[in-house]
Amino acid sequence: MNASEILTKTQDELTDELAKLKKEQFNLRFQRATGQLENTARVRQVRRDIARIKTIARQKAAEAKA
User: Mind listing the domains of the chain with CATH numbers?
Assistant: First the structure.
């Protein structure tokens, strides 16, 4: 997911997407711990997507206040 896709989403959609990614991140951590993780690059990808969503959500909240 890139930043331009995230920018078009509403605050509620961002919250839903963040929850989905956090759940996926938990599952990936669990798979890594048990040795079942096949796509190790997905861990990094999910972590960065979470950071992107949090950053853009924070920016949108700041714009709404101003």
Answer: 3-65 (1.10.287.310)
